[in-house]
Amino acid sequence: MTTQPSLSSFQVSENVSHMKASSTLAAMQAAEAMRAAGVDVVDLGPGEPDFDTPQNIKDAASEAMRAGKTKYTPAAGTRELQQAIIGFYHREFHANYERSEVAATSGGKQAIFNAVVSLINPNDEVLIPKPYWVSFPEIVAFASGKSIFIETEENDFVLTADMVRRAITPRTKLIILNSPGNPSGRVIPPAEFLQIMEIVAERDLYAISDECYLRFVYPPATVFSAASLRPELRRHLCIAGSFSKTYAMTGWRVGYSLANSEWTRAMLKVQSHSTSNVTSISQAAAAEAFNGPQDSVAMMLAEYTRRREWLLQALNEIPGLRCPQPEGAFYAFPEVRGCLKGKLKTSGDFVNELLENEKTVVTDGAGFGAEGFMRISYATSLDRLEEGVKRIRRVAERA
Ligand SMILES: Cc1ncc(COP(=O)(O)O)c(C=O)c1O
Questions:
Q1: Is the pTM of this model over 0.90?
Q2: Fewer Cβ within 10 Å of end Cβ, the chain: N or C?
């Protein structure tokens, strides 16, 4: 009999040992475990659309397989996908990008990872407005950078140019912007975004604009991409885009970066030594997503709009809960401090109470750097939302 070496002495690298497990993933696992035990769970945790990928996109993938497009592609993506991305930004935002400035990535997440890792040196400061998407600080830590968080609660979680100006130090190198934002759903007004980018350019810094929820914006707010900014500002910018949410393609793993060609070359070095190219079949699907009919996006947006209207009103009717109007994405981010009494002392306690006694999953704001809040996803049917809100109300009233 061969003896297996013991794993107890396995030493995780310093870079990885500092990484936190994702709080959104923890919520997903809790819901999974309860569903497996046959419990009637209301899951308001998911960060992914509840719609199926549109048929024309699936057909493009099938066709790619039939046509034998099943081999390696350039790390930056197929010419077809690069042109589709360039075409989309030209059509929608009058932006002119060259192929040397475009890279297809395995989800928007990889675009952010590539951008941070190829720019940040040890102890460089990276500005991250709160609340933030959970992966931002972890990616910065992996690159040995230092996250400097910007508090935005005073302005109901909308970042301003003044806040950015105050946070800059001689060590600042990068700011990560995310509008519409996860988890708050808040949108930085375009005029404010412009001022932020003017500061970034003036101080010779860089910005990543995570535009993963680009198209999910509700009137009177309007769709805005940093791609529409002046070329001299865009030189300081990397856009991280994604097909995941807009086209309900989370499992296909396709995103992209748009950045100056030097930054793009550096990012492709990182990618070519790790994941190489995005799956060739997913690339064909993504090209169809941008080139093909867009009515499925309009349909999803109309449904999110209906749910959002209902949900915001229902949440604001719960005594103690306060929910600022999110202008984008598919999340509400209410403050629960007014419901904390007795044994419920933190938003984490509130969220656990919901989970344990009402079998309802939401995500604690603390994981996004905003203790006292919780994230509710409305990427789920109106029926389930109604049931979930009933359960939230019960906990709020019991507290
Ligand atoms: C703010 C934000 N950025 C980026 C991503 C990454 O998405 P993907 O890698 O699926 O494109 C997500 C996913 O939840 C997100 O919420």
A1: yes
A2: N
